[in-house]
Amino acid sequence: MKLLAFFLRGGSKWSFLLPVLCGVLSGAASTGLISLINSVLERSVAPDTATALRFAGIGLVALLARVCSQLLLNYLQQSMLEKLRMELVQRILATPLRELEETGSPRLLAMLTDDVNNISSSLLVIPQILINAAIVTGCLVYLAWLSPNVFLALMAFTVVGFVTYQLPMSRGLGFIRASREVQDRLYKHLGAVIQGIKELKLHPDRRSAFLEQSLGETTTALRRLNLKGSSLFSAASSWGMFLFFVFIGLMLFVLPAPGAQNGAASLVSYTLTVLYLQQPLDALLANIPFLSRGMVSLRKVERLLALDKGLLEAVRTAPAPRTSFTRLELVGITHSYHREREDSSFTLGPIHLKLEKGELVFLVGGNGSGKTTLAKLITGLYTPESGEVRLDGVSITAENREELRQCFSTVFSDYYLFSTLLGLTPAGLVPRARQYLERLHLNHKVKIDDDGTLSTTDLSQGQRKRLALLTAWLEDRPLYVFDEWGADQDPSFKAVFYEELLPEMKRAGKTVLVISHDNRYFHVADRLLHLEFGKLVSEAEQPPLEARQRAS
Ligand SMILES: Nc1ncnc2c1ncn2[C@@H]1O[C@H](COP(=O)(O)OP(=O)(O)OP(=O)(O)O)[C@@H](O)[C@H]1O
């Protein structure tokens, strides 16, 4: 029911109902056919040309309605697949970063691939189940008309069949749920194959251990669980069919045509009708496992789908980026990471901090002291657990957090480089981008097409970071955050970055927060913020930039 409600909510009701109606029409026509066949066999209808034409007409309706239903269903499935995937991606984009980090990329990937496929496959079987259920109902009504006793006997069998069918089905569902959990682990290992390929290639023992233990154990567990689940589903389905044949056997040999008034002719009619039930019943039983997988997957993505509408709206209707700001204040903000398995936690803050327009601020401190975490809080990527962030005196809440984010251009140490200047296409930008390429000494390596496509991103780490800096530069936001940007640069380019580019940004009125371990260049900063174990331990004002440059 949950699945049905989800589909009906997700699209136009007619796009779902139309294939069902076509299917039901096809089912009704099929039932009409079986009734006609019975009548001809019983000789209650003459096998003349008119009957043959009736037969052909009903058959044609059954066929055309079935084809329409299938075509509409295929269309519905593909558009649902696209819609669901886009919807999930939009919800991922609107989900708080911390929540996504806790979910982890393997689970997100499994949702976007396996779960989306399972849900859309179950979409395809829902109408088929409804269609086959309609055929079964049609046949049952016909059977009830032929003989109420045979109908009642069949219903009694159906109840027994349903109850006994449920037992293996619910066990099977348990295995499918467990296999879906293991699937997340599989994606983690597959990620390790791709990202850890160098380490795996260079170390045979690690490679074998990975193949046998990590990946091997997971794929074996997955195979076993899926096998158990599918076997139980098949067993349940076969049990249903077995009961069906038992019923036919009883009808033929033990209780010859209960309620039969017309002897052999009636027996032929019941048997034929009951036999005709086999195909839709078989399809019904075969489709239920797909439905079960769809339900398991829907539960997996439910949390994303239930995302607060306000968050979704805030991302969909993001404000235009600000061109300037005066002051950003952090008032007693805190953030904690809890590690369940390690029974330890890291707490940043409470942090009190002000960033003014045109300031060049360095954030320094040991590894793990909380610099990146603080940068994520400042940029609005994390929501503080307590305290307040104020932009030009206005408190930042869920409603206006997008406005804060739009103030920043960043290059985090785990930045991502897009292969085009995505979202940056105002006229005159590409010539500026080419100038920056030259300044960043990348003009011999990378070309930028008029549509903003970069000729390559297959560069050295230092060069890739320069390209990321170029994108940030082009965004032209009032606040910049560079997280250990200089770490991959050669000494000459480090000097260009710290002594030319940063002061130039400052002169252009930008506020720049630089996370750095390059103590050779600390003199460039207006202020040094020192973070240790999550606390700001000191804040050092420095003399004016010109004096500092002269001194160095
Ligand atoms: N996603 C996360 N989940 C759990 N703990 C985290 C996460 N990110 C960081 N931490 C922990 O929080 C602490 C601060 O990390 P953070 O990355 O902010 O430090 P940092 O000062 O930027 O370090 P570095 O100089 O090494 O980049 C560390 O102890 C780290 O283990």
UniProtKB/TrEMBL annotation:
<feature type="domain" description="ABC transporter">
    <location>
        <begin position="328"/>
        <end position="552"/>
    </location>
</feature>
<keyword id="KW-0812">Transmembrane</keyword>
<dbReference type="InterPro" id="IPR036640">
    <property type="entry name" value="ABC1_TM_sf"/>
</dbReference>
<protein>
    <submittedName>
        <fullName>Cyclic peptide export ABC transporter</fullName>
    </submittedName>
</protein>
<dbReference type="InterPro" id="IPR015856">
    <property type="entry name" value="ABC_transpr_CbiO/EcfA_su"/>
</dbReference>
<feature type="domain" description="ABC transmembrane type-1">
    <location>
        <begin position="14"/>
        <end position="293"/>
    </location>
</feature>
<dbReference type="Pfam" id="PF00664">
    <property type="entry name" value="ABC_membrane"/>
</dbReference>
<keyword id="KW-0472">Membrane</keyword>
<dbReference type="InterPro" id="IPR011527">
    <property type="entry name" value="ABC1_TM_dom"/>
</dbReference>
<keyword id="KW-0813">Transport</keyword>
<dbReference type="InterPro" id="IPR005898">
    <property type="entry name" value="Cyc_pep_transpt_SyrD/YojI"/>
</dbReference>
<feature type="transmembrane region" description="Helical">
    <location>
        <begin position="123"/>
        <end position="144"/>
    </location>
</feature>
<dbReference type="InterPro" id="IPR039421">
    <property type="entry name" value="Type_1_exporter"/>
</dbReference>
<dbReference type="Pfam" id="PF00005">
    <property type="entry name" value="ABC_tran"/>
</dbReference>
<keyword id="KW-0067">ATP-binding</keyword>
<dbReference type="InterPro" id="IPR027417">
    <property type="entry name" value="P-loop_NTPase"/>
</dbReference>
<dbReference type="InterPro" id="IPR003593">
    <property type="entry name" value="AAA+_ATPase"/>
</dbReference>
<keyword id="KW-0547">Nucleotide-binding</keyword>
<keyword id="KW-1133">Transmembrane helix</keyword>
<dbReference type="InterPro" id="IPR003439">
    <property type="entry name" value="ABC_transporter-like_ATP-bd"/>
</dbReference>
<feature type="transmembrane region" description="Helical">
    <location>
        <begin position="150"/>
        <end position="167"/>
    </location>
</feature>
<feature type="transmembrane region" description="Helical">
    <location>
        <begin position="232"/>
        <end position="255"/>
    </location>
</feature>
<dbReference type="InterPro" id="IPR017871">
    <property type="entry name" value="ABC_transporter-like_CS"/>
</dbReference>
